[in-house]
Amino acid sequence: MSTSTLTGICPECETDLTTPPIVQGETMSCPECMLTLRVEDVRDGTLSLQMIEVQLRDWGQ
């Protein structure tokens, strides 16, 4: 059985997310709070998401 879309909830702002098929380890951004999320697990069409810290470049300004 193949799922055409997956669902999950942003752990920061609790926005309901829907995405095309994605695999464990891939990253995505929450469209509401712009947080970068990593897919920790995909089970029964539901994503388990974890926030990840993004290192921003220090341009020395």
Q: How are the secondary structure elements laid out?
A:
Layout: E1 6-9, E2 16-19, E3 27-29, E4 36-43, E5 46-51
Antiparallel strand pairs: 1-2, 3-4, 4-5
Q: Could you give the count of β-strands?
A: 5
* Rounded average pLDDT: 89
| Biggest β-sheet strands, sense, barrel | 3 strands, antiparallel
* Stretches with pLDDT under 50, minimum 5 residues: none
Shape: elongated
Termini, distance in Å? 53 Å
Oligomer: single chain
Work out the helix count.
0
- Beta-strand fraction estimate: 35-45%
What level of helicity do the residues show? under 10%
**Secondary-structure element order, N to C:** EEEEE
Going across the biggest sheet, name each strand in turn: 3-4-5
> Helix- and strand-based class?
mainly beta
Computed over alpha carbons, the radius of gyration is 13 Å
